[in-house]
Design brief:
136 residues; mainly alpha; 5 helices; 73% helix; elongated; membrane; coiled coil; DUF2304 domain-containing protein; transmembrane; DUF2304
């Protein structure tokens, strides 16, 4: 088995695994696209190994076999950046949600509190232990 065939088989297996995970709803759309791109790149490099020296010439890298490693590390760094951006967005959403819940709780407590407690007619009807809202 040649290295080209091994890379092509790995690309096909990776693509099949990704499609299986998407079908089982273990992997969502944007993430699946990313991994399908990785599988396609693996398949292309496996089927067309002459792409690597061509990329080396285009990018000016004199030792062409290092091109896939540089591209792979760059893709991993981009993926990590994307995950950090997504995590930051989720944390911001969670913080805003917690703030909204706190505001709603404060409004509910304000509505539950006797607004007319200064009204002597109503304030005399409240229980003296302060547990007025549980007696309703």
């Amino acid at each position: 088995m040649t290295a080209q065939l091994t890379a092509a088989v790995l690309g096909v297996l990776l693509a099949g695994t990704i499609l299986f995970l998407v079908r089982r709803d273990h992997l969502h759309g944007p993430y699946a696209l990313w991994w399908l791109g990785v599988a396609a790149a693996t398949l292309i490099l496996g089927v067309f190994p002459s792409v690597v020296p061509w990329l080396g010439v285009i990018t000016g890298i004199s030792y062409a076999p290092v091109v896939p490693i540089i591209v792979g590390i760059s893709m991993i760094l981009l993926r990590m950046l994307q995950l950090d951006i997504e995590r930051s967005r989720q944390e911001r959403q969670l913080r805003r949600l917690v703030q909204k819940i706190a505001i709603l709780e404060a409004e509910m407590n304000t509505q539950r509190a006797p607004s007319s407690i200064t009204d002597p007619a109503i304030s005399t009807q409240l229980p003296e232990d302060g547990d007025w809202h549980e007696n309703e």
